[in-house]
Amino acid sequence: MFEFITGKLHRVLPGMTIIEAGGIGYRVQVPLSTSSRLGTAGSSATLLLYHTILPEQGEERLYGFGTEREREFFRALLDVKGIGPSTALQVMCAADIEELINLIVGGDVAALKKFKGIGPKTAERLVTELRDKLAPHATGPARNTTAASGRLPAGAGIADAVMALVALGYPQNKSEQAVSRAAEALGKGAKSEDLVRRALQLV
User: Fold this and answer.
1) Which among 15, 29, 53, 156 could disulfide-bond with 164, CB atoms 3.0 to 4.6 Å apart, if both were Cys?
2) What is the tens place of the pLDDT at every residue in 123-170?
3) Span 58-79, pLDDT tens digits
4) In a domain, 164, yes or no
């Protein structure tokens, strides 16, 4: 139904942005690889979209991606039984695409099942159903992407990371606890994107 959106960024958080187009503000959930590349509030941006309606609540959600590669990987995850849009986005926020592709192509079921929402059977299905499809895109051994890089004011980074986890559907208290533990592990200079990735391993 929706292919892309171009507009002015109203707010940018790790894993979520609000973009204004035609006088309407659209809340779009995005992987960290996309939100980290978006500009600041007031700048313009274009996001490729995936639209879904939750059958239980009738709630509509928009998922946005900075590149077609990200969107295609998201769609590939959805083709695997047991993975819905929320789980797919959580996985893409917990690690970058290169790491995920290398884990799948390498058949690393043990690592895959550690991601929130991915049990042993789903991890096995990820490997069996996507290994051949993703093999041409593998770049080598999976990398550790949780190391902190860059600097943000500690308070702002922690607050943004908590909001990102809440936007992904985690309770406020659990989000705060996980981000607090992530901050202790990564240090005060951790970027909010790195805090979210580490917190998703702890929540």
Assistant:
1) 15
2) 999 999 998 888 887 776 544 433 333 333 345 577 788 878 877 878
3) 789 999 999 999 999 999 999 9
4) yes
Residue 174 exposed, middle or buried by CB count within 10 Å (0-12, 13-18, 19+) = middle
Q: Domain range spanning residue 28?
A: 4-65
Q: Ramachandran region of residue 176, left (φ > 0), alpha (ψ -120 to 50) or beta?
A: alpha
Q: Total structural domains in the chain?
A: 3
Distance CA 44, CA 60 (A): 24
* 103 lies in the same domain as 42: no
Q: Does 158 lie in the same domain as 132? A: no
Q: Residues 80, 54: one domain?
A: no
Task: Give the mean pLDDT of 169-197.
Answer: 82
3-class DSSP assignment, residue 153: coil
Question: In a 3-state reduction of DSSP, which class is residue 115?
Answer: coil
